[in-house]
Amino acid sequence: MIGTTLTILGSLGLFLFGMKVMSESLQKLSGEKLRGMMRTMTSNRFMGLGTGFGVTCLVQSSSATTVMIVSFVNASLLTVTEAIGMIMGANLGTTTTFWIVSFLGFKFSISAIALPLIGVALPLIFSRRPKLRDTGEFIMGFGILFLGLMFLKDSVPDIKNSPEVLEFVSSYSGRGIISVLFFFTFGTILTVIVQSSSVAGAITLTMAYKGWIDYPSACAIILGENVGTTITANIAAMSGNTNAKRAALAHLVFNIIGVIWAIALFKYFAHLVDVIMPGDAGEKANIPLHLAAFHTLFNLLNICLLIGFVPHLGRLVERLLPTRKDKAGAHVFHDSAFLPQTGELNIAEAERDVQRMGQLTRDLMNGFVELFLNPDTDLSDHVRELKKLEEESDRLAYQTTTYLLKCSAHGVSDASMLRITAMLRVVAEFEDICDCGYRLVMLAERKYRKQRRLPEETINQVKQFSQIVLQFMDFYSSRIVRGVEVQDMETAYQLENTIDRFRKELRKESLARMTSKGETVKAEMIYIDMLNNMESIGNHSLNVLQALRHHD
Questions:
Q1: Can you spell out the DSSP letters for 363-392?
Q2: I want to staple 343 with a disulfide (CB 3.0 to 4.6 A). Which of 191, 349, 407, 476 is the partner?
Q3: 496: how many CB neighbours lie within 10 A of its CB?
């Protein structure tokens, strides 16, 4: 008995590992396209439905997809309403795994599929070409997945050899709604334990194929799996903001509404699927495809019933989870070993933080200009606000660096690794720019506090110099996601050279004034420090564009 249990667990582990390898290699093959799909999301719920379906088909895990959706809502890349449409699509997308496993895993000799696939994949995974290597990993994962399924089928004893199982199950079968609720609860708990509806589905299909459970019982378990798969996203959302929690709750509410009508009409619904699908569901050869059809039809009908009520569902979760003050900036990153990791897709969330840091650099520079041009106005409250921005930049730099390193640790493609490396350097440069910006703020504040006076011409020169620096900041901010072309680097070098030349000329003029008018030395020293910090910002800005260019 212990040996059989361990063999079953090993088979499930092999199945899960194969699914993980297959999913992560697919992400590496199509990561940029997937991120593009996420970036171009609109409020159109049907677009969201299609995107959620497509992403889940590639990731092969609705749990992983919904965790990713929750993280995007947390990062304000998606609204709760947009997320609901995508979650609906994720529910439908996960049914493709059922069809693949039901059709290939139970209709064919799996060893005839799995071992040749692994044989084909072996030379590819040693290729130096990233695309071939990732393709080899995908094929290898596909083969391991079905190898695990083969072992699972062989290790689960046939019902004829285990009459005590039949006696146990029959005591819970044939009791109408009580039986349905029992197997529904079993399916929910099973999915919560394995944290993957695909693995729970493979277990259900095998149990039904081996005769441990009948067709109605397996259908009830599948309904439970649809609720159980929502738990993972809700656990992940606990570290996120209110909107992230709302998106995860919307997934739970959507599936519970579907389960309510499906259980109320269970007898008729299960029979409808049996009528639609060829063959008798009571025969073991037919039951896997019947269950795949039940799973698909349930999700399809639930989407059709609720797609028109997406805004209402959004308002419902808003009432259930009222707005509260959130801790800013926390990422949602679910590190469960049971889930395929979505490092490729989470890069898009990191990009949002990099863009936010770029905006902070400009906010601090604008704050300095406002302080400098209003020497007779007490702006101490504004200085305190700018201090908070500088502290936020430090926090964001640490958080984003940590998050990018987590993304890189989860098996991303070579191209994405270059992207992560570039963003790590950009974050470091932005942190230095923010430090320079805050030093400028402090210099303007000291000039005000010490009543240091500069000639009107000098004030105009600082204003002009600041505009060039701000132009450079706008330039790099617009290239963070879009990328940097060759002609962009030419513009960057021109801007950096202009800043260097401006600083040299103005510093020379300042030294001349100090020589002729000794009483302005202290004011001129503050002025020279300002010029030096603006010139440093120009250097860091050029480094930002060089980092982005090297990635491209």
A1: HHHHHHHHHHT-TTS--HHHHHHHHHHHHH
A2: 407
A3: 20
Q: What is the mean pLDDT of residues 163-168?
A: 53
Tokens 């030096």 correspond to what residue?
532
- Contact (Cβ atoms closer than 8 angstroms) between residue 151 and residue 7: yes
Q: What percent of the chain has pLDDT over 90?
A: 18
Nearest Cα neighbor of 266 from 290, 289, 298 is 298
pLDDT computed for residue 338 by the predictor: 46
Q: Which of 360, 358, 369 is nearest to 530 (CA)?
A: 369
- Model pLDDT, residue 168: 56
Residues 321 and 245 sit within 8 Å (Cβ to Cβ): yes
Any idea where the domains of the chain sit in the sequence?
2-320, 343-551
Using CA of residue 429, residue 435, residue 439, residue 444, what is the dihedral sign? positive
pLDDT in tens, 364-384: 999 888 888 887 777 778 888
Q: For position 260, what pLDDT does the model report?
A: 93
Q: How far is CA 282 from CA 161, 201, 208, 504, in A?
A: 19, 18, 10, 87
Mean pLDDT of 192-206: 80
What CATH code would you report for 343-551? 1.20.58.220
What integer pLDDT is reported at residue 539 of this predicted model? Answer: 93
pLDDT for the residue numbered 296:
92
Of the listed ranges 25-39, 205-219, 220-234, the least confidently predicted one is 25-39
**3-state secondary structure (DSSP) of residue 227:** helix
Residue type, 64: A
Task: Kindly state the DSSP code that residue 78 receives in the 8-state scheme.
Answer: S
| Buried b or exposed e, range 242-255, using 16+ CB within 10 angstroms | bbbbbbbbbbbbbb
Residue 129, judged by CB atoms within 10 A of its CB (0-12, 13-18, 19+), counts as exposed
Note whether 399 and 353 are within 8 A (CB). Answer: yes
Asked which of 202-206, 269-273, 374-378 is least confident by mean pLDDT, the reply is 374-378
Among residues 452, 429, 445, 413, which one has the least CA distance to residue 547?
Answer: 429
- Residue 259, token pair as written in the block: 């389960």
297-354 pLDDT tens trace: 999 999 999 988 888 898 899 888 887 765 555 565 545 544 555 666 677 778 888 8
**Inter-residue contact 180 to 49 (CB < 8 Å):** no
Sign of CA pseudo-dihedral 72, 26, 333, 418: negative
CB 449 within 8 A of CB 378: no
The conformational region for residue 455 under phi > 0 = left, psi -120 to 50 = alpha, else beta, is beta
Contact 38, 51 (CB under 8 A): yes
Q: Are the C-beta atoms of 524 and 462 separated by less than 8 Å?
A: no
